[in-house]
Amino acid sequence: LKALLLFTGLLVLVMALHCFGTMSALLKIFTRRSPVEFFRVVKTILITAFSTSSSSATLPTSIQISRERLG
Q1: Does residue 2 carry a pLDDT above 90?
Q2: d(C-alpha 61, C-alpha 49), whole Å
Q3: Distance between alpha carbon 5 and the CA centroid of its chain, in Å?
Q4: Secondary structure class of 62 (helix, strand, coil)
Q5: ∠ CA 42-46-49 to the nearest 5 degrees?
Q6: What distance in Å separates the CA atoms of residue 43 and residue 37, rounded to the nearest whole number?
Q7: How far apart are CA 7 and CA 65, in angstroms?
Q8: How far apart are alpha carbons 30 and 67 in whole angstroms?
Q9: Which of 18, 15, 68 is nearest to 41 (CA)?
Q10: Which of 5, 33, 39, 59 has the fewest CB atoms within 10 Å, i.e. is most exposed?
């Protein structure tokens, strides 16, 4: 059980580092957009994706936010 908790904790840490570190750096380099601004805009998409666990349910929200707020 202890090893599983350690593995899970490390996995969450690495995924957060990838999302907020690597992906934020790539976003800044290739789009010149602030990562903070980007995550603020896509917050609704992320909430919908995590709460429904369904790509089909998230797609309309993603399209709407992308067209209206991301350009």
Answers
A1: yes
A2: 9
A3: 23
A4: helix
A5: 140
A6: 10
A7: 35
A8: 19
A9: 68
A10: 5
Whole-Å CA distances, 30 to 22, 23, 40, 67: 12, 11, 18, 19
CB atoms under 10 Å from CB of 58, counted, come to 19
- pTM here is 0.70
Chain position carrying tokens 């797609």: 59
Residue written as token pair 């996995």: 11
> 19: which 2 tokens?
């999302």
Structure confidence by residue, pLDDT tens digits, 4-55 = 999 999 999 999 999 889 999 999 999 999 999 999 999 999 899 989 988 8
pLDDT band at 71 (very low <50, low <70, confident <90, very high): confident
